[in-house]
Design goal:
131 residues, alpha+beta, ATP Synthase, domain 1, 2 domains, 5-stranded mixed β-sheet, 5-stranded antiparallel β-sheet, globular
Length: 131
């Protein structure tokens, strides 16, 4: 049996997933990352986007709106600011998230925060276009 990755995804409202999986693709703040068993330890921030979880021939997608990822010898833990299974997404909810992201851009008080907020907004608009 192939080695598995211990994966957990938690939002403030609930634990969305806790399972042994083959691979998880995450929207890191610096770009997309594919996480496999025995990945080097790492912490990164999450950008808005779809997390793709692969286990055998099954694939699950969960939308996250920011948060943190911790990769350790114990596995991968995502602490999402907000998370929702892809099947629960609709155009109205994405439009709401875009509105919040636009407010984040307007409220940013430094160039770095403005850039990060704009990148989040851009990813949400990409997600909206994909629906």
């Amino acid at each position: 049996m192939a080695e598995k990755l211990n994966f957990s995804l938690v939002s403030p409202e609930r634990e969305l997933m806790s399972a042994e999986v083959d691979q998880v693709d995450i929207p890191g703040a610096e770009g997309w990352m594919g996480i496999l068993p025995n990945h080097a330890p790492l912490m990164t921030t999450l950008a808005p986007g779809m997390v793709r979880i692969v286990s055998g021939s099954d694939e699950k997608r969960i939308f996250v709106r920011g948060g943190f990822a911790e990769i350790s010898p114990a596995g991968l833990t995502l602490l999402a600011e907000e998370a929702m299974p892809a099947e629960e997404l609709d155009a109205v909810k994405i439009a709401e998230r875009i509105k919040h992201a636009e407010e984040d851009v307007a409220d940013a008080d430094t160039d770095d925060k403005k850039l990060a907020a704009q990148q989040s907004l851009d990813r949400l608009k990409e997600l909206q276009a994909a629906l």
